[in-house]
Amino acid sequence: MALSQKWIDTVEDGLSNREWDAYDTLIRSEVGECVCSAQEAGYNPRFIENTASGYVCVDWTLVKAMLWVESGGPRQACWKTRPMQIGNPGDAAYGVLKSGAEGSVPVMSPKLFNAIRTQSIDSPELNIRAAIAYLFTRMAKFDVQTVPDESDQTIHSVTVVHGDSLERIARRVGTSIDELKKFRSEVSTTQLRVGEKLRYRKTRTGRVIVGWRKWDFVTIAARYNGGGDPAYADKLAFVANLFPRLKR
Question: Which intervals hold domain LysM (predicted)?
Answer without folding.
Answer: 156-200
